[in-house]
Design a protein that fits this description.
Blueprint lengths: L10 E5 L9 E7 L15 E2 L7 E2 L5 E4 L11 E4 L3 E9 L3 E10 L17 E6 L4 E8 L4 E4 L6 E2 L4 E8 L4 E6 L2 E8 L8 E8 L3 E11 L10 H5 L27 H13 L32 H13 L6
Antiparallel strand pairs: 1-9, 1-16, 2-17, 3-5, 4-7, 5-6, 6-17, 7-16, 8-13, 8-17, 9-10, 10-11, 10-12, 13-14, 14-15
Helix pairs in contact: 2-3
Length: 325
Amino acid sequence: MKTTTRLGATLLILAAAAAGTASAQTAVYQTSFETSGDPSGTSFALGSLSGVGGWTVESGGTASVASSPLTAPDGSNYVALGANTSISRAVSSGSGRVLLRGHYFGSGSSQLQVPDSTTPMAAVLGFRTLDASTFTVAAYDGVAGDYVEASGSPAFSNSQWHKIIVSIDYTAKQFDVSVDNTPLLQNVNFRDSSVTALSGFQSYSEASSNVDRIGFFSSTGDADGDGVSDDVEMATPGADPLDPSLPGIVLGDLDGNDTVTPADAQAAFECWLLGNCTAAQISVGDIAPNNGSPCIDFSDGDGTITPADAQSIFEIFMTTLAPCK
């Protein structure tokens, strides 16, 4: 089995070579396979993908740029892969953290393959068939030596597009996975701990499937610059570390249920004014999406929570029940 990075009915892999640094977010490579105006700068004509824009289709497989019968998640075109097809492209970055975004439409494999070790690999995903209409997403954990799945093996329909984001930390040698802005897996260990940077992408499909809107983005910890770290957004329902318009965090929501209630105000009041707070009471909801300041720093906005701030949140939410803007 060739290895670089696989996103498809069977698995996804990221491999590499050397370390480095990057700005808050740098688009290493992105494409929607468009005929005109594609972000990669390549013109993808309808038809075979082989040899276009640096993409390779392994011998025996079929991959075509298409505009129907599906509706692409972005633009007009997407790539349709025939059964038992592998496509790949060299993509390199020296960044210590890279975010992969891809869209997938297809089914899974009845049995996931264990990646071979001839080439170092970082992030490996597998799509496992659950039944005739659904699949689940698994990830290969190099320490466990097997695929791991989220609790309950969440099901995803094989008749619609799904957005998959993988946050790859080449320093910690781990990666996180979200599907459709829903956290799925965190702190999965690299297939090979020797991998230090991104070098390529490969998508293998055991059954016919489709991919689109593939992008790689280097990050220094907050890729979309919304004041919320990539790690927090990858672990927060509704969040997208590449989209600042989807913070997934409600200002003042201390218990993380996406709604500000008197209970949140009471917790803030007791914690900060009375001093009986613990670290466990301060969750991702305490981060302000706009500037990174603690979300209950209302009085003076100096980034420090004081008794005056606690009094403010207590009065606002206990008396008016109106969310603070």
